[in-house]
User: Fold these one by one.
Assistant:
Number 1:
Amino acid sequence: MHICELLRQHQPCFSFEFFPPRTREGAEQLYASMVDLVPLRPSYVSVTYGAGGSTRELTHGLLIRIQEHTGLTVVSHMTCVGATQAEIGAILGEYQEHGIVNIMALRGDPPKGETAFQQPEGGFAHAAELVAFIKKNFPQMGVGVAGFPEGHPETPNRLLEMDYLRAKVDAGADYICTQLFFDNRDFYDFCERCEIAGITVPVIAGIMPVTSLKGMQRMAELALGARFPARLTKSLVRAKDDEYVERVGIHWATEQVRDLVDHGVRGVHFYTLNRSKATLRIYETLGLKNVSASTD
Ligand SMILES: Cc1cc2nc3c(=O)[nH]c(=O)nc-3n(C[C@H](O)[C@H](O)[C@H](O)COP(=O)(O)OP(=O)(O)OC[C@H]3O[C@@H](n4cnc5c(N)ncnc54)[C@H](O)[C@@H]3O)c2cc1C
């Protein structure tokens, strides 16, 4: 089913993101998390696409397994990095054969060791071009795009940001999923700016709880520009020990989700990092168990 259809049926829609593991240990970790999280019956799960297309086969394999074994709707992330139009077309063709009809269309970050995105010869420069390509050649596919409540670090100014986002929607994107954020005011402001820019597709809020101080550092690197509000930072620093840091981080994310739901958010996307504890705790605390299933 298309994500926009699920967004209509499940209000709000809850979804989980996983990445394809590269080691046996990582695979076990993912398997254990799936055992915990699948019974929550998220509206959909998405699988990331490693920088530079480095996980192309792994992403594909994981998507098929999740789809076959759980019956959940899956979304494949796809990037423009290091691939020609023909290669992207071939991958999409394979997805279509396997019944995967939802794509998260991204430009992608540069592969390890490179600092800037390079448009591949015969490939795309921006996500908007990838969206247009999918909609032209695979019109039956649903397409999501990335949004950045705090701004994308490479965008020269915040007005252009909305023009570029609008271009992705005009190219055919059906919904927007945001980068993680820790202050809901940034999300609400972003949604209002979308409205002003004439962007009317649903916006899904991306949530990732801090679970360790090391993880916080990694999040800062991954989501360049992410702002850790002083109130959160103070509590995390006070907690020091990772066990308490995790409690603070999960509590903060729980309050974020509670507030988003109370404000009528269309969807919440949990960046799980292949772990289940934080998402389970948030579900338990907010009484969200089976929330999507109950609206079927
Ligand atoms: C929900 C989500 C999921 C993600 N999943 C993955 C993943 O699986 N794999 C991965 O590698 N990365 C992933 N990313 C990271 C993403 O690939 C990077 O943040 C990337 O730098 C931007 O991607 P984009 O799709 O927003 O690109 P674009 O929309 O193309 O924007 C990229 C940059 O180009 C600028 N730009 C856009 N259009 C134009 C134009 N016409 N002229 C000039 N400048 C322009 C934008 O302002 C921005 O600075 C994800 C991000 C999010 C929010």
Number 2:
Amino acid sequence: MAGSVGSAAVELDDKVAMPLVGLGTWQMTGARCQAAVRTALQVGYRHIDTASMYRNERDVGRAVRDSGVPRGEVFVTTKLPPGAAGRERRTLHDSLRALGMDYVDLWLVHWPPRERALVSTWEALLAARDQGLARAVGVSNYSLAQLDRLAAATGQLPQVNQIPWAPALYDPAVADGHRRRGVVLEGYSPFKNTDLRHPVLTEIAARHTVTTAQVVVRWHVDHQVVVIPKSASPERIAVNFDVWGFSLPGEELARIDGLSRSL
Ligand SMILES: NC(=O)c1ccc[n+]([C@@H]2O[C@H](COP(=O)([O-])OP(=O)(O)OC[C@H]3O[C@@H](n4cnc5c(N)ncnc54)[C@H](OP(=O)(O)O)[C@@H]3O)[C@@H](O)[C@H]2O)c1
């Protein structure tokens, strides 16, 4: 995939493509969040990850409008807070009002709700998709067994599961489990869970003349795992997205996968 455009994406269904690299926005609000989202859109990101709980949907929406990038070209994810079971529709309307948008590209259940609301919450997400308020729906922080429970109850698997993912967390059984079910694996906290000075990463980065952070992002892309690094720094926002001029051969991917056993 080396040399391909920065909009490399995975298909969620025949109508919705999700860019593999997005900007995470947790712990950024106000002008700082707006500047980060504008910078990201300027340097080529077309995917922004927010959540009701981040209290920055208003900033994300404003930055998307101010960027001049057409709404239809930006993939926007938001998430239902765990305490909002039973109030799903009202919560989505609040998110859309804050974002200033009439739909989101992806709406996720942020964390599994209490057991007896697991299925009803998922049904509310499916209904929102049917009504065009979310182009795709999924979950976050769910186990494979929980994905199967939703499918058994409704016949519909989540399109995406957003979970912590990084070389040190690499688990081939989890990756395969998602692939076999056709659920896109979206990783979060790629850097917080990584020692960016690990000698395996520094050696591979030097070979490609990139930074270890870029190696970590590219490792996700080469595994077709969606990744949403967060940065408030314009330089790091740009660097984290500049991963289209190289790719990791199988031997390097395997060495990075192996960090999950060595750390
Ligand atoms: N679904 C969930 O439950 C859940 C949970 C956690 C996160 N998330 C999502 O995933 C996103 C990413 O995860 P995260 O924010 O936890 O952590 P992250 O993206 O792994 O790491 C962010 C940290 O790394 C630093 N950083 C960014 N680029 C860097 C680079 N090139 N070199 C060195 N350091 C760099 C950032 O500092 P600067 O800002 O100073 O650059 C910040 O301190 C979140 O923002 C959120 O959207 C979802």
